[in-house]
Design brief:
InterPro entries: 4Fe4S_Fe-S-bd, 4Fe4S_Fe_S_CS, EFR1-like, Flavodoxin_dom, Flavoprotein-like_sf. Pfam families: Fer4_9, Flavodoxin_5. With about 250 residues, the protein is an alpha/beta fold. Helix content is about 35%, strand content about 20%. The two termini are about 20 Å apart.
Length: about 250
């Protein structure tokens, strides 16, 4: 079984590629998390987790869901993490999670995909993003091959920087930076409700026809990147930056 959480579509695409090749089913963790659904699920023997990288680890909301949910029949777990640059030392924490869930750890695969974190970085333009996805195809095929053959992913090498980012920086990043206070909406907002629907944390509500953010944000960038009018900004950091969502690439 494939468990997938996706902010702006990268992980969803990778998960679908794996599902199509292995003829497996995908569980939408966005919906599970949004509805606070922690009921037990029958996974079969193999679990494949496909997620984006948040602050050099798997998203905290995903690890929280994994710890709260009982897997029936699960024996092995592969971690597939996409990122705009690197995943740091995420493998250490994925191994810990697998051990805590009493699952055989089958490794972590890093796949470079277009950047979406416009609260800090620049998202690529359309053609550049398509090129990044095309280059990712080699790693996606390799990922599928290892899982199909029941093999563990190759163990990556980590340096001091990787350990520092996933270890010390990750909790500090969540504590000091992952907040919704900077999200603002322009007066031209039509109140289409798209941001409310896309938020996996139920952190946005429409008040007087305009979105208002609460304090329970994970910085997935779904609200700002899926806004059809592009009237949401993250302070001044997102001004003038292209919004990224995988569907715009029209890659099947």
């Amino acid at each position: 079984m494939i468990l997938c959480y996706s902010g702006t579509g990268n992980s969803r695409y990778i998960a679908q590629r794996i599902a199509d090749e292995l003829q497996d089913n995908i569980v939408d963790l966005n919906e599970k998390i949004k509805t606070n659904n922690y009921s037990s699920i029958e996974t079969g023997g193999d679990v494949i987790l496909v997620v984006p990288t948040y602050a050099w680890r798997i998203p905290k909301i995903v690890s929280n869901w994994l710890y709260k949910t009982k897997f029936i029949g699960a024996k092995r777990i592969w971690f597939v993490m996409n990122c705009g640059s690197e995943i740091g030392n995420a493998t250490k924490y994925n191994l810990m999670l697998a051990n805590d869930k009493h699952l055989d750890y089958m490794g972590t695969k890093q796949i470079l995909m277009p950047e979406n974190y416009i609260a800090m970085f620049n998202a690529p333009q359309l053609e550049e993003a398509k090129g990044i996805v095309e280059k990712a195809e080699i790693n996606i095929k390799e990922t599928i091959k290892y899982i199909r053959e029941g093999k563990a992913f190759l163990k990556p090498c980590h340096n001091l920087y990787d350990r520092f980012m996933s270890g010390l920086v990750n909790p500090l990043f969540y504590h000091f930076f992952v907040k919704a206070a900077a999200f603002k909406v322009k007066d031209t907002c039509t109140g289409c409700n798209q941001c409310v629907k896309k938020c996996p944390m139920n952190n946005i509500q429409l008040i007087d026809g305009k979105p208002v953010w609460g304090k329970n944000c994970t910085h997935c960038m779904a609200c700002i990147c899926y806004c059809p009018q592009e009237v949401i900004e993250y302070g001044k950091k997102s001004v003038g930056k292209p919004r990224y969502r995988f569907e715009q690439l029209k890659i099947k």
